[in-house]
Amino acid sequence: MAYTGRMGASGLALFFLAACGMAQARTLPCEFTDAEAQRNPIGIQIAKIACREHADWHGPFIGLDGRAGWRDGRNPMEAEGGQDRLLDRTTPWKRVASYWRSTPALDQMIASRIHGATECATEATTWSAAAFCRTFIVENPWSAAFVSHVMRASGVNDFAFSRDHMGYLRAAYAAAGASGPYRLVAPSSERPAPGDLLCYSREARVRSHRDLIALFERGERELGTHCDVVVGVDLDGDSKLYVIGGNVLQAVAMRKLHLNARGVFSPPAVGPERGACGMNREDDCSLSRKHWIALLKLRRQGP
Q1: Which of 122, 186, 256, 297 has the most neighbouring CB atoms within 10 Å?
Q2: What DSSP designation does 140 have?
Q3: What distance in Å separates the CA atoms of residue 228 and residue 240, rounded to the nearest whole number?
């Protein structure tokens, strides 16, 4: 019989089980090492802020198959009346109002005389002010306000804070080869990293990065778009990309996407060959099948 020492056979079994468990442990999205923070301090700080907000919204997500899920069954949404609170007990629409207030994005809405924007400029203390502000939150997309908030909270003060994503897409295009915190590239041209922004078009007239550049070259300024913050890339070699965005599922949600063999973003196919999403056609349904048109690469890694 092999000598097992004071640990004993049962102790060895527990030891090996624990060792196996440790070997199988995988890095999760929003887990960052000190080495990563040293290599990319600004990008990791941006990712941490986005992750913190996502956790407060009870972690809703869109899986690799493009279907939505909720981590603990709770689904607080900005349009709801407050029955489901955020993790810190904040009412969802009030958290969204704080995103708007934290950057010049709200000032842009006030300057454009958008109904209810002025009432969101301060904490609503009356019933009427709260009603006007809440109407503003529900009626106006806030995904760009979320990204702007994340940048301000991360100390990226030269970011092109904007009421819409085109504000900072235009700024990155205009700053090509020059300054600014971000540079604009095609989403499949370079490897993403924490702190980058991945963006898609909401309009069929712009389906690719080439279409986006052509739009800028024509001098056009308006396009319905959405951008998410990159928070995880190829974790433990899983060839996946993890991004977080606001106003997704009426919340702050995480999305899981594919990377290809080169480590760059590999978008879900978009086209008529996919068929029409519908009841009993679930395989043709995906909340991530978008016209992904841009990757904003964080230009400055250090302070």
Answers
A1: 297
A2: S
A3: 15
187 in any annotated domain: yes
Task: Grade residue 137 by pLDDT with cuts at 50, 70 and 90.
Answer: very high
pLDDT band, very low/low/confident/very high, at 4 (cuts 50, 70, 90): very low
Pairing of strands 251-259, 61-62: parallel
**83, two tokens:** 């029955």
Domain assignment present for residue 8? The answer is no
Mean pLDDT of 248-270: 93
Catalogue the E-assigned strands of 115-239: 182-185, 197-201, 225-233
Q: How many domains does the chain have?
A: 1
In one-letter notation, the amino acid at residue 41 is P
Whether the pLDDT of residue 6 is over 70: the answer is no
CA distances from 180 to 29, 34, 174 (A): 27, 26, 9
pLDDT at 148 over 80: yes
Residue 53: count of CB within 10 angstroms of its CB = 21
Type of residue found at 42:
I
Going along the chain, which residue ranges are E strands? 61-62, 68-69, 182-185, 197-201, 225-233, 240-248, 251-259, 265-266, 291-298
Tokens at 201, concatenated:
């078009």
- What would the 3-class secondary structure string for 235-293 be? HHHCCEEEEEEEEECCEEEEEEEEECCCCCEECCCCCHHHCCCCCCCHHHCCCCCCEEE
CA angle 250, 105, 208 (to 5 degrees): 65
What pLDDT shows up at residue 246? 97
Domain range enclosing 135: 39-298
Q: What is the mean pLDDT of the chain?
A: 87
| Helices 166-174, 143-153: crossing angle, 10 deg rounding | 60
Residue 300 confidence (pLDDT): 65
In this structure, is residue 215 part of a structural domain?
A: yes
